[in-house]
Each structure stands twice: as C-alpha cells, then as structure tokens.
Amino acid sequence: MGEIEENATQQQWGFDTRAIHSGQQPDPTTGAVVTPISLSTTFAQDGVGNHKGFEYSRSGNPTRSAYESQIAALEGAAHGLAFASGLAAEDNVLRLFQPGDRVLLGNDAYGGTYRLISKVHTHLPWTAIDLLDVDGLARDWPPDAKLVWLETPTNPLLRCFDIEAICSLAHDRGAVVVVDNTFATPYLQQPLPLGADIVVHSATKYLGGHSDVVGGFVAADDDGLVQRLRFTQNAAGAVPAPFDCYLALRGAKTLAVRMERHCSNARAIVDLLVGHHAIERVLYPQLPDHPGHRAAAKQMRDFGGMVSFTLQAGRDAALRVAAATELFTLGESLGAVESLIEHPGQMTHASAAGSPLEVPDNLVRLSVGIETAADLVADLGQALERA
Ligand SMILES: *Cc1c(COP(=O)(O)O)cnc(C)c1O
Fold first, then answer.
1. C-alpha 85 to ligand 1 mean position (Å)
2. Chain region(s) in the chain for CATH 3.90.1150.10
3. For the chain, which residues score pLDDT lower than 50?
4. Rounded to the nearest 5°, which phi and psi values hold at 186?
C-alpha cells in the first residue's frame, strides 16, 4: 500500500486500534511484533543518495517514524513530529514566526510556555488574554497578532476554551492557532478537525503515561507548514532518542483505557471535594459552573484526570494538604498511572509569579492516577483533615 492509501485506511480504524497498530506493522525482516529500538545513527546506502528512507538518525529514525505515525493517527493528523521534550516541540513551532509577530497567550497556561515565549523568544511580543471572552477578543484584536497559543483545559486552573470559535476568529484575522493538547490528550479532544493549525504535546505526561520519559510532539495537517516544521526539527536537532520514542510509543498504546480510568477516578475525587468544609472552590471542567464548561462539554469526550481546588484556610492549609497525602505523591508533572499532588504557586508555576499568569497561593493541583478510586478518596480525605 502507498503511504496515502495506508493513511486513509488507518483513519477509518477506531482510536484504540490506531493506538496499537498505526505505524507498527510487524518488522519485515524478523517478524518482531514489537517495534524495534533502532539505535543505528547511520544507514547503509546502495548507491550515493539511494537509501531505504533513512540516512542519519537526527533526520529520521525507524523507531521515531513508527511513534510519529502512531500519535499523528491518534490526533487525526496527516503528519507528526517527535521532539526531545514538550518545550523543544513548542520552541520548534515558535521558530516559524518572524520578529514582531505578536503571540496571544491565554492568561492561564503552563509556566514553561510563558517562560519560553517571554524570556527566550524575546523578539516575539506577547499579550496575555482572556480566551473565555471571544467577543472581547474580536473587538480588541491586536493588528500585529500572528499566533494564538491555546491551552485547553489550562494548567493549572483547568479553564476550557471554545477551540472552534477561536480558530474561526483567528483565521479570519490571518493568525495561526496552536493548541497545547497535553491535558486532554487526543483520546478526549482532537483540535485539528475543530480548526486548529498545529497541536503540541508534552509526551512526558499522558501520552507516555508512566513518568519514565520526557518527550514532545507536534501534529499538523498543512503540508507547507509541516515542511517548515520538519526543516527546523532537522536543522535545530531537538529530536528524541530511539529509546525514548519506544517508551512513548509503548505508553500511548494504552492511552484510551488509561484515560477512561483517569476520568472516572477524577470524578470520585470531585465528589469528595464538592461541599467539603475545607474547600473554597473545586476546579473541574465537568462542574456546570466551571469556566468553559460548555466548551468542554461540546468538544471533549470526557473531562480528564486533572482536578484543582482552593482551600478556605489559605496558603498554609494548601501547603499542609499537599504534604499530608500518602498515595498522592508530592511532585511536579502529571498524567501518569500514579497519583500526584502539588502546590502550583511554589512548584510548577513559580516562574509565573508576578506575571499576568500568576496562580492563587491557596491552590492545590491533583493528577489523579489509575489506582483504586476508594483508596485515593480515603487518602485525600485524611489529608484534608489537616487543612
Ligand atoms: C509539561 C508541560 C509542557 C512542557 O513539556 P516538557 O515535556 O516538560 O518539556 C507543556 N505544556 C503543558 C500543558 C505541560 O503540562
């Protein structure tokens, strides 16, 4: 089968089938069912320039190709590109833009994204905006804006934004829309069919899913855009090692079943938190009064495994609760099988202090894992008694 024909067949497969089969045919020489980890940095050529599709591993590697096809298929994308980290993927995307191109950044976003745009890509002016207010954005659209950077649900406040409405406005004004789909994953939300130009991921989180590999991913449909992204992927060289590609590919095979359990466990935790005397506010996209609930209900299959909440008794109570759990490990990162708890103000989002993206200091963020729900509820329940 030609590549285009093969892609068409694979797009008709269900999500779980694509996770396990896209890009992963048995090895033609040995029959190995599991994608081999190809460590070779160079590939023999039959004659000068006459090769089997691989020349040098920075430019292309068989394990990476399998993984790139797999995740592209999950996003419903024509193309996928793997990177050494989520931020390397974001950096590759930001290199598409020219000095003076303005970035519109949601006013709640991953702290590292904010740092990359404001401290590294200093030639790109940026404005932090409230993406919940699409009409306001249409009214006050800065004429030099060339890129909307959209995270939904956001990290750590879990706000959700209407991907379709924002893409339609941005395209009308000649801007590109990038969606950071790390929190939702392609199982819960597919931004490209909703109009996004580029999807980025920290594969370190749910795609890898086991807290054992750092990685990033870019998915896109437009051939011209992808050609430029591939040029920079090779020219700047922030590619992942074959072993990392193998780990992420292996992790993503079980994405659907993991996400279902993450979502149902998160609901059990939300049931504990809503109405609890120590809690000021529960942040979870399924709650009807949550900012962006309607957008989430429209564009997501389910509401995800991340839950945030604020404490009535303020910052010290938040710090006490974060330190008092036993099953929820105190640590940064998210999206893996084990449950994690953290204090964004002093941990993941410390770099946003004093900026428009600063987070409340009584906020706690949970990455709800796939352990037995009752055990997680009991653990968080005892920790909340210390609030
Ligand atoms: C972690 C994260 C990133 C950065 O990814 P790394 O793999 O840590 O470089 C980007 N966006 C979101 C939403 C994240 O959670």
1. 8
2. 256-384
3. 1-2
4. -65, -20
Q: What pLDDT does 176 receive?
A: 98
Residue 5 has a pLDDT of 56
Active site residues: 58, 110, 180, 205
What's the pLDDT score for residue 223?
Answer: 98
pLDDT in the model for residue 45: 95
Give the whole-angstrom CA distance, residue 192 versus residue 48: 39
Coil, strand, or helix at residue 57?
coil
φ, ψ of residue 109 to 5 degrees: the values are -155, 165
In which residue are the tokens 């009807």 written? 288
Identify the residue whose tokens are 């929820």: 328
CATH fold for the domain made of 3-252 = Aspartate Aminotransferase; domain 2 (3.40.640)
* Ligand 1 near 110 CB (within 6 A): yes
For the CA of 215, the nearest atom of ligand 1: 7
The DSSP code for 50 is B
pLDDT value for 361: 95
Distance 290 CA to ligand 1 centre (A): 23
Which pLDDT belongs to residue 26? 94
What is the third-level CATH fold of 256-384?
A: Aspartate Aminotransferase, domain 1 (3.90.1150)
Measured CA to CA in angstroms, residue 221 lies from 47, 195, 229 at distances of: 33, 10, 12
Per the DSSP assignment, residues forming a β-bridge with 338 are: none
CA–CA dist 371, 100 (Å, integer) = 48
Structure tokens at 139: 């009214």
| H-type alpha helices, 96-140 | 111-115, 134-139
C-beta of residue 167 within 8 angstroms of C-beta of residue 137: no
What is the distance between the alpha carbons of residues 225 and 212, in angstroms, rounded to a whole number? 31
Using the mean position of ligand 1's atoms as its centre, give its distance from the Cα of residue 53 in Å: 31
pLDDT score recorded for residue 111: 86
The H or E element that residue 342 is part of is strand 340-342
| Residue partners of 312: CB distance under 8 A and separation at least 6 | 277, 278, 279, 280, 387
CA of 111 to the centre of ligand 1 (A): 9
Q: Which residue type occupies 346?
A: Q
Q: Pocket of ligand 1, candidates 83, 87, 115, 159: which has the most ligand atoms within 8 Å of its Cβ, to mutate?
A: 87
Contact 216 CB / ligand 1 (< 6 Å): yes
